[in-house]
Amino acid sequence: MAMMDKSEKVPKQMQPVFDAVVVLTDAFCKEHLNEEYRHLARRATAAMCRKRLTPLVKGDLTSWACGIIYALGFVNFLFEKNQKPYVSASDLCDRFGVSKSTGSARAKVVRDSLNMVQLDPNWCLPSMLDDNPLAWMITLNGFVMDVRTLPREIQEVAYQKGLIPYIPADKRSNPE
Hints:
2 domains; two-stranded antiparallel sheet; globular
């Protein structure tokens, strides 16, 4: 058995809720999105389950699964036709069998609970992170700067403090 990703840990009493929601989000991501969305949906579901007063205990779990994907779609521009993958908000809700108003309302609760905003580096698809300006902005001596333009030493400190997802200089010297 594989070790559970730390970000998917949930309180014991919330495990059944987590399991039920991720069955739905995993299936949706497999059929309509991709592995990156699946992983983010599992992380978001776990984060919602860890909330002290989690809203997931009230209401239909299918609507929460829809809301979680909808919220992640909002962050990652899923509803923009020029994006891949693309799913319209209406199609997303239809495929979960949830009204668009319910899906949107659940997504708002998820976004507010997890402090999600568009391009949020914490909820950005890994494939979009390199091009996400919010992932690379730090404040240095009172100035907002793109860490990718700064010396490696500063990049290392920013990474150690959890301000950036990786050291950009390493990625440039080790292209995939």
